[in-house]
Amino acid sequence: MSAPTLARPSAPVPAAGREELERLRVLPARHPGRWIATAVVAVLLAMVISSLVTNAQWGWDIVRQYLTWPSILSGVWGTIRLTVAAAVIGFGLGTVLALMRLSRSPLLQSVAWLYIWVFRSVPLILQLLLWYNLAYLYPTLTAGIPFGPGFHEFETGNLVGKFGAAILGLGLSQAAYSAEIVRAGIIGVDQGQHEAAAALGIPRARQQVRIVLPQAMRTIVPTSVNEIIGLLKGTSVVYVLAYGELFYTVGVIYGRNLRVVPLLLVAAIWYLVLTTVLTIAQFYLERYYARGALRTLPPTPVQKARWSLLVAWARLRGAPVPASVPAGWASANRTTGHLLRRGSTPSSRDVGGLV
Amino acid sequence: MTATTEQREGLVEVHGVHKSYGTLEVLSGVDLVVRPGEVTVVIGPSGSGKSTLLRVINHLEKVDRGFVAIDGDLIGYARKGDTLRELKEKDILRQRTRIGFVFQSFNLFPHLTALENVVEAPVSAQGRPRSEVEPEARALLERVGLGDKADARPRQLSGGQQQRVAIARALATRPKVLLFDEPTSALDPELVGEVLDVIKDLARGGTTMIVVTHEIGFARELADTVVFIDAGRIVEQGPPAQVLDHPAHERTKAFLDKVL
What we know:
By secondary structure, chain A is mainly alpha-helical. Helices cover 68% and strands 3% of the residues of chain A.
């Protein structure tokens, strides 16, 4: 890149001088404010860690003992089951509700609007208890033709047990929130995309599934994972139904042995682990739906680690960086020879100067 | 490939079309006949209703009065005795596969590759087997000079390349008529030529085309008819030598003075 607008034409660096420049060490600029802030945070961090280690009240030995206790593990499994079932119901029904709100039928629009209004307004804990008491309202449920003959009768109490009431409550209220997320994603897709699909004569259902939703996913995924993380922790509310998920299980145990804090820590650690798994899934999902939206996809942590190792190994041996490492990656990590990279080095992949 | 000169297909009739958005009348009684295989170029100031006219022809916009027909088939309606019945969306979508539309802003599907963009409509709208469509789609990409870009996604292509893919996509359903809505207006000047070359190639191949454009040179070279629209009416139409060089109307003259 030249700078033709400079008032005074600058003389070119002589060839001998260029090689000398290329060999010079590059000193990074100093940032004293950043160093002070770093030191303050480091001290605070050390204080937190030391208190975690030295304060015996945390009861780490009990935490270790109960972390993989069979009943805790079954509680974790209960939490996972609730989260998955409620997420499937929530996002399945939520997508249907979103499409209803976007449909041209006033009745479908209003029903979806009404649903979202009711289920967002009533507290989750109240909904759960209502579902659990469904048998009080309707002692039996009948499968059959509306207003016509019935084929089979069920005892409501058998059909909607603790687990049933829990996933109904969690799933149906989640659907109200998911509907708005999906709808936001769909209306965020460029109008030209709807038009192009219509102009090509693509059937309407296919327009949504093949053209609109995959693009909407880019905005749907981050908020949805947020919601699912909320749902994962929200399952702890189900303790009011005495269903054996993680939080209820922990409560039962510390009710017996009175080691409240260590057992709460056990639950906290498991929630952390589960949330971490979801966060990793989010990274890869977002990356998948970024196809087409970005020219090049961001590298995965695995790729980053492999490239760093390859570059470091190549530098140690003084060998050129392997071709599998992207050019930008190798040169961004250089510590010398920034200055004349463009003009004088034979290739941007060349790693000079260090050996 | 899509329409040889012997197939006399693609007669477009626009009759007495009115269209308003709210209180603003965008088209106020437009009559236009495009004969099969002819190239009609529509020019006019912005806001004159050129784009709306194109969108009415493939029924992206409903008309308030008047009708549009292609090869005698009404677009958007079916005649039953002396009533006009509005077609179901499904049938309108089927009619649209016979009308290719190229947008000013390309509107390629960004999450699909160039090839998938071209293959989508013949497979999902016309129900043709993918195995038959795919070689045809590759040939179309070859024809617009992008045979080597079949697996690229739109964002990896230049504007000119994207518009050429969009043209291949519009051709894939074997339309009788091609509509171009300012196909080069969103392009950098140095990319306009490559897109115009593709359109010229199609025009010489005898496809019926209606092109809304500001490229007066293109109109002069290829149009059979030039139509000048202003304020929702066709002010004058005729062969380019007449409309562009000896306009009969003051408004046409004033517009041409500004763009030439």
